[in-house]
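Incident log, structure service

09:12 report received: a user says their structure output differs between two submissions of the same chain.
09:20 pulled the input from the user's history:
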Amino acid sequence: MTSVVASRVPPGTPAPAGVHPRRGSTRWCEWCNRELPEAGRVGRRRRYCSHACRQRAYESRRAVERGELPQDAVVLTIAERDDLADRLYQVRCAAEDVATALAESADRDELAAVVRALLENARAAERIR
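09:34 re-ran on a clean worker, output below:
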């Protein structure tokens, strides 16, 4: 497996416990911070949303223990890095579209459409995976 390193919240650090007003506390994946599905009543509580997240957390802990990575690093596959770079590029392009629409005095509907596109791309870029 080929991988690259990017900084983020240290793996293994418990994710912030979000609280949903109607359902009580929500649990989050300790690797990617996605919301975990409701757990059954038996067994341990889940720490990760998938086997892939559990494996990434394991690899990161081992690399930190061997001194190969700083504590605040995360391991990404090349595909994950490329996907993140593509999403960030889409956000930049959408922001440039907004700037162009403003410079050209675009009408309200056109400006609203490019701002919606910018928001959609920004939300997609927030995802780690």
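09:41 both user submissions now match this output. Likely a transient worker issue. Closing.
09:42 reviewer note: The chain has a mean pLDDT of 77. Helices lie at 51-65, 78-103, 108-126.
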